[in-house]
Amino acid sequence: MAIQKRRDFAELFREKTCGVLERAFSRGVIDVDEYELRVKKALAADSMADFLPLVSDLPMELQHEEGEPDPGREVPSQKRWRWKPFGLMLALFSGSFRKGEWNAPKFLFSLSLFGGSVIDFQKASPPPGTMTIVAVSIFGGGTIKMRGRAGEMKRCNMLITSVFGGRKVTIDWQEPPPEGINIGSIAVFGGSAITVSDTMAVDSDGIGLFGGVPHYGRGSRTGNPSGTEAAVQVRAFSLFGGTTVGTMNGKNE
Known about the structure:
It is built from three helices and 14 strands. It is α/β, with parallel strands linked by helices. The protein has two domains: 1-70, no CATH class; 83-253. The relative contact order is 0.10.
């Protein structure tokens, strides 16, 4: 199981790295020889230590922009890297942003390591069915803005992990996913702040060891509990950290 997970993450990093290299070549940042050399190394790489040197000297905007190559330059023996079922955002001693018009993948992994990230769904096109977001902040931070319209997305699952870092989540869908939003929050010497629309019902619970959680030991509802099930469910674990749940009007759990 551990070996398979390592392979899965290596494939995500490989896809992200090849996409950055493709954009670098298409915009004239690197020449064809350098492009082919780095892609060859990326295809053979299997760890973060192997991938980082291939993109660390490239302009930062290439590492988080999604766009088509310049039609005036043909990328040799290349495969068009577009959104697939998996998406990867890296903020390593830097920033990573996904906002404006973009197609959200079914599975999105965001890592902030001594950096920060912003994921904004205001103008996004969410995938149909279920979307899963895994956001990890290690000595870093990030913001997730769930707003706009869920479109064909039925459910959203999120796992937020903050280790000596923090993550803010705002949920203000004009048309939320009909099957709800499930959030798991793990805070270890870090914190997560979750804010939801005043019109959405929330069920929050958790376990805290020398840390704070939203109403430890029992479920609670915030906002307008109009249905039998809450639109947003939060389950938290805190170790020397904390998770807060509040509404737009400032009420906190």
